[in-house]
Task: structure prediction
Amino acid sequence: METKQYDVVIIGGGISGTALLYLLSRYTDLNSIALVEKDKGIATLNSHGRNNSQTLHCGDIETNYSLEKAVKVKAGASMVVNYASQLPSCEHILYKYSKMVLAVGEQECDELHERYQAFHPHYDKMELWDADGISRIEPNVVWGRNERIAALGVTDDYSAVNFQALADSFVAQSKRSDTNVDVLLNTKITKIIERNNDGFELCTKEGKIQARSVVVSAGGHSLLFAQRMGYGNQYACLPVAGSFYYAPDVLRGKVYTIQNDKLPFAAIHGDPDLLVRGKTRFGPTALVLPMLERHNYKTIPDFMRLFHLDPGVLKVMWDLFKVSDIRNYMIKNILFEVPYIRQRLFLKDARKIVPTLQLQDLTFAKRIGGIRPVMIDKENRKLHMGEAKINPGNGIIFNMTPSPGATSCLQNAEQDVQALANYLGCEFKQEQLDKELKNN
Result:
């Protein structure tokens, strides 16, 4: 392969990398950009619909979000909707389903009423429903119950997204720009070399790529690249895999459940699967696995390089395991992967959403579900649950983006564009971006 020089090289062809490719091509005056992906296609791993919740997170039904975080996530989701709405067709990308977060029992219902009072001023479409209101939208959620229930929800809004289709559209729109855009598939970066004040050299089996700046958006592998270059050693990676279960078509839209504040993992939800018609998908579970890609055992050595059992990591793991709710949850999620046992155990959780589900209704969704790279902050000895970004200020950025990183892809990419524009001295058309993606 002939050595080529680019202004920016993006490593990782998922939703985060392709969103950055689009913003750079449309809103800067850079001359050449490359997107490098080791797989044979765009968004084939965690950004593929089989490996994520297919949810456009807006912060209204996610009870693990504070109001501050919810409002920020809502702004990111709006950027995605505004972008897609300007395409000739977005029906294959965004979907309108009803969505709600369900409260079961007196305590959860009281908590939901308080949340409604705080959040409704920021979400004008949000409604508070009792059992009768829920039954008009999701009858299967109400049938067979004796306890009090309530829900916060929205009936007319975009709530589901095919992130692979969104990533494909980012690439297609990027190639329509005046910028020279190269998309290099089946190209694995083996090493990044920082040259003395002269950009970076990226090594592949096919040859070398030179870049003035580099952005690594490759999940847990981003941290691996960073640490090989001497950055981000304050982090370790805890890969959390999520599995799903299929049931018949019992839900019309998305039904989330109240988050347990003691658990650092999302509560399960149920919704129609965008990729498998006639199926409701329940999940995700949360299982710590020693690999950076689900079902890819070749990434186990990469995990071992990132997971050092030093005092900081041991302190975080002990703090997690000594809490009975977390300990029991982690053990239960191991059992969720065991044939014969898993359906019987998961049925109890799924019945919180649909009480009349039967054991024969549930089937384990084989090879469905991805891995979220949760960062362990060794210096502060705690889990870092939000997006993690390492920017040493020398023209290279490393992104590790767990949920809701997919929803916030354009929002996160905007931060990177601002940083790259400052470093490279290029033009960033902020006003145009604000007009097209924020003001609709």
